[in-house]
Amino acid sequence: MTASATPVPGIDLRLSVEAPDCAVDAPRVAVKDCLDVAGHPTRCGSAAFAGAAPAQAHAAVVERLVQAGCRIIGKTRMHELAYGMTGVNAATGTPVNPRWPDRIPGGSSSGSAVAVAAGEVDFAIGTDTGGSVRQPAICCGVIGFKPTFGRIDRRGAHPAQSSLDCIGPFARSMPMIERAMQAMDPSFVPETLSRAPKLARLRTRFDRDVGDSLILPMMAQGYELPYVDLSLLDDAFRAAMTVIGRETALAFGLLVTNGAALGEDIRSRLSAAMAITEDELHRAEAVRAAFTAEVDALLGSYDAILTPALPSVPPLLSEATDPAKVLPLTRYLRPFNLSGHPAIVLPTLTSDGLPSGVQIVGRHGADAQICAIARWFCDTVPNFQTKD
């Protein structure tokens, strides 16, 4: 697949949803099309839901945004059923990565990342079940935040039941990420660091150009970044794949059984997921408990853990069907869906001008601290300085 001659935007359905007293300068916001907006169908990026009835009420997060004075201007495109990492969608159109149109926009919250990167909105809302906010954020060169699991109310999100999924924001600057968090969660209060954070680097494997774009700027600032290990990281990746497969099959498996209109990639993944057994799920849950405890123990000694956001630059659109190019993309993102820890990604560039980024993982509930650390990064490390 190649980039379209006519760029497909991130926003699929244009809306105008706001409170009666909405300010003229209210933030413009777009939400992923797996979140209910009253009076409009929730299609989850799938032709299977082309005839869906309009939602009767706003999703809880949409209601919060409106109450906070935001202006909802659209619903964004997404990887079908939020079950993919490339953002390629033959049914609704693949939103074009604004800065790198020959590369994938990332998934599954592709349109939300594209809308922010293109300046269509001040911030956008996505959902992150296995990296689906953080990965497209880096693909499109913006900031993406996955809050602590359960922090943002998921009522009105699809699928309704998930032990992994978190609703989170995209923006072009940290002040706007924090503004989005305050709108989504009134209990969120931005923090300011009183000292440099105590950080550790997770020992990982990544392409040389990605590593140089992350480590060299930090080393140039003289920051102490000791290496640490998480022995269950790869097991957690595989366990998270098992859990997402089982939960997505429970939510959408009937679409396969009933012969609904699905993209071939989704039909194939759902069919495989429907074969996941109870024993496999139990083993995955055992890994979840052990890995969560391992991360918690490590964060008892550090304020945050750093990883590459992606182990390599995002693949070309022409490589989007190559599992060897796509599957590793969430290697360092997905495990923290399993554990539920908050994680934020900040974009930077390789020496060739291609997208790269760092992930910052923090303690459960320490969402404001993680945002403060990310803001500190943007203020002190030149490569990570961002502007709205």
TrEMBL record:
It comes from the Bacteria. Residues 29-184, 278-371 form the Amidase domain. It holds the Pfam family Amidase. GO terms for molecular function: catalytic activity. Keywords: Plasmid. PROSITE patterns: AMIDASES (PS00571). InterPro entries: Amidase, Amidase_CS, Amidase_dom, AS_sf. Gene3D superfamilies: Amidase signature (AS) domain. PANTHER family: GLUTAMYL-TRNA(GLN) AMIDOTRANSFERASE SUBUNIT A (PTHR11895:SF151), TRANSAMIDASE (PTHR11895). This is Amidase. It comes from Gemmobacter fulvus.
